[in-house]
Write a structure and sequence with these properties.
This protein is α/β, with parallel strands linked by helices. The chain contains 14 helices and 13 strands. The protein folds into two domains: 224 residues, Glycogen Phosphorylase B (Rossmann fold), CATH 3.40.50.2000; 159 residues, Rossmann fold (3-Layer(aba) Sandwich). It starts with a strand and ends with a helix.
Amino acid sequence: MIKKNILIISVYYPPIQSIASNRIYSFAKYLNKDIYNVHVHTMEEEKQFNNDLFGVEVTRSQNRSLMKPFTFTKRTNRFIHYSKVAYNIVIKKIKKNIYQKWIDESYELLKNKIKQNNIDLILSSFSPDASHLVALKLKKDFPNIKWIADMRDEMSCSPFIDKRTEEYYKGLEQEIFKSANAITSVSKPILDDFRSLSNNEKLLYKEIRNGYDFEIKNLKEKNDIFTIGYIGNFYGGINPNNFLKALTLLIEESKIVDFNLKFIGVKTHFEIPKSIESHLTILPTVAHPEAIKEMQSSDALLLLHPNNGRKGVYTGKIFEYLATTKPIIAFVDSSDVASDLIKKCNAGYVSDFDNIEGIKEVIMNVYNDWKSDIIKEVDMNVIKMHHRKEQVKRLESLIEELMNEK
């Protein structure tokens, strides 16, 4: 069998730590090496990563721009982290493309790589837009190469961008729609938005969700004291205020007395009610394997996302939560995909993010289950579909469809 040659272009890849990095890493890891030769091109970082894992060739270009964004390859204290974030926001506003040097250097390098390795297909990942801009230039030089634009999240429809960025993304989206062969994203609602924006009827669309990447251990042991875990940070509109308010009311009503809260990797920019203080333990960020163990050792897992009108948001941690088989208490948009998936898996209880009475009811449901030793029978078939390797199989089916096009 003659192998197909796949080139993946992404700014984010280990050692950079992010959901975007994990996504691309899983593509490189699980694409079938009996069928594909996989090449990854990414950003060069001071702390380098083993480039020889899984038979994947990784090349890196530096971003030589004078004003370039910070990336996050290691944990730092809160002040340094937020200083880096603030700096990145400022330079993005004053500089048209902070990755321009990386784009130029990557383009020159990859032109030669395509010729030398007979690349059949390019997959580029957003955000940032730099990867797509490189792919656009390469597609013009090599029009017969297939191109998958992995959008991941929204572009012009994002609620988190200013008007200038929105207008820029609208123009870039149309360029991508004209040149790409397929669009992928993490959820159907986001993918449908891209479909509605495009006039290219030949474009293929595929939902490739994020997922978990560890072995499921169906742990049924429970703690002596009911323990709710939350792993990850609070950011943007995501905060525990409504959850803590509802919990305080349950304490005042004597409906729940003895419990523990375990927040791991959070910054305490929220108010802790007096009645909660003795029950709450806040731990620093831990390495990913330890984070999984913390999830597995909880009696329930807290998932938060505000109802902000944005649809198609699973949140990155939901898939790992599901794979622990511990009940999820989700305070999210009850009409969105995260709620639907939890209900489909029978994996927990859901209320809207700002519904205090609904949140109280959810807490009591999972607490009463714990007291009564009731273990919900989750749908393992649906959960296992969200292992990273299963989602990459969906990517492989799209690649094969593109390769077989006339």
